[in-house]
Amino acid sequence: MAKSNKFGFAPVEPDAPRRRERSVGPMGAAVREAAESLTDATDAKVEKRRQNAKDAEAFRAAQDEGRVLIALELSQISADDLPRDRMDLDAVASSDEMEELKASIRERGQKEPIEVYPGPDGSYQLKKGWRRFTALSQLMAETGDARFGTITARIERGDDGRLARYIDMVEENVVREDLTFAEMAQVVITAAQDGGVGEPDPDALVARLYGSLHKMKKSYIRSFIFLLSQLGDVLPFPKAISRNLGVDVARAFKTQDAAEALRAKLQECQTPEEQNKVLAEFVEASKGMPQAQKKKLEPREKFEFHVGSLKVTARRGECRIVSKDDFAAIPKPLLERAIKAFEDELRGGPSVKPL
């Protein structure tokens, strides 16, 4: 007890403070719930924006890598920039297989996308899927149904280059074994003549276009390249030539006289059977040639030599000159005179004054 003061009473001790209890009223509860709800909504919106940004970034990456499929109008697509990997496209377009593909698309729709790339004029150019593109084009022309007027496509966004586009074009059909050796050889010949590819030697281009094939198949393709380079303009049905027959004909091709006779016979053929019979007879005739004569007529496949700073590679049907000079910068009349002098000297023609 506290000590008394002089007045005889002790100081009054205050009671312990009591905490006032407040219960949340209806209005306060409503405000609190609204605040909590607003906080949750804000957090959800922030997370949603973050996820949307992440999805947009993933979509742009997929679009840049050509993994996004879109619907294009057929009129937006052209097929004239990249040569096709099939011979006789008109026959393919009117074949029974094309009718079967059209029937499938009519019933079940387009199941596999085509692949396109931006062309020089801003339109889309067809890279893969010529048969699907042709089937839909025919269905649209025949029925007028709007559902056949669009095609599902994958767009190449990067600049893959001409050679990569050739490889992509043939890759699908090669994997499916849908191309003949004559068609594969023709692709190589066409690509070698395409300045954008940068490889004028068809034999060297085989390994780049058909790198995934077995080396024996590449050898077969080279045989057909030789065959088409020698007889392509008089072969009425190159796709009908079997692998073994084509290889045998290329191996038996010996003399210019025999070649001219063979060309004359091929120009008279009206059916694939007639063509292949003529080629088979040519192979058989070469087997009856004396061995000494065969050896004498057997040409070297390839040889190289140097003239000054020029490297010259010679093979049947081709003479390749490699130099550090920029031949494109040489005036055309001067280059023509040089080539004319070379040809005259080669053919034993009139002498040409030195340049």
UniProtKB/TrEMBL annotation:
Show the segment(s) annotated as Disordered. 1-50
Write down the InterPro entries for this protein, in alphabetical order: Chromosome_partition/occlusion, ParB/Sulfiredoxin_sf, ParB_N, RepB_N
> Highest taxon of the source?
Bacteria
Q: Which residues form the ParB-like N-terminal domain?
A: 75-174
What SUPFAM superfamilies does the entry give?
ParB/Sulfiredoxin
Q: What is this protein called?
A: RepB partitioning protein/ParB-like protein
